Amino acid sequence: MNARLFYSLPGDKVRLGVFANNLFKEDGVLRRTPLDIFGNTLSIYAPPRTVGESIEATF
Question: Has this prediction a pTM greater than 0.70?
Answer without folding.
Answer: no
